[in-house]
């Protein structure tokens, strides 16, 4: 699962016994050599979808990590892109890996997604692979924060994969991981919040709607469909009201 340039087992153990922020500070130099980085296949699929919705002026990469999603924003935003993350270590890698020159310009801000330090200045907010770090009870506040930094008509866009079936080895792998994290957090402080199975489509749609978004979704065709016809991966498109009708988005079969 890890390249030779990735973290050692000892380094992962030290990270897992740290806070989320400290853990990612420690992991940052080797993060892009782990399976935790969002895959290029997902990034490319989202980029293609965003190009059909844009262009946009100003984009925000929420919980940007080392900047992989910020690179996607630079292909669809004309004025500027901003990456925000609470890990100074991850931001340091992003500053080094993502060129700050050229156009659109890239800015990096250290901040908490639950208390964003911006006004309503963005046309597009994206996020990749970060939602497992938020407990279900934190979603209302998180989505309200995103709503507050979008201009009227702005979009909050992110991919969400279909949950694996109980017959799949991935189902038991993720269940085992989440169980281990819950045991760890019951026995050790500070907690390390990372639950792969806590971010569910129905809950997400409901909380986005409550935060004031119009929510639609489309299948990401690169990842195919499950035997019941439902997509293996969807793109959620949440639009802040006030900017006219959102772009038409297809609705896949339920599931």
TrEMBL record:
EC number annotated for this UniProt entry: 2.1.1.-
SUPFAM superfamilies: S-adenosyl-L-methionine-dependent methyltransferases
Database matches in InterPro entries: Methyltransf_25 (IPR041698), Methyltransf_Superfamily (IPR050508), SAM-dependent_MTases_sf (IPR029063)
UniProt keyword terms in alphabetical order: Methyltransferase, Transferase
TM region(s), chain numbering: none
Tree of life domain: Bacteria
A biological process term (GO) from this entry: methylation
Pfam families: Methyltransf_25
GO MF, one annotated term: methyltransferase activity
Residue stretches making up the Methyltransferase domain: 60-154
Family matches, as PANTHER family: METHYLTRANSFERASE, N6-ADENOSINE-METHYLTRANSFERASE TMT1A
Protein name, as recorded: Class I SAM-dependent methyltransferase
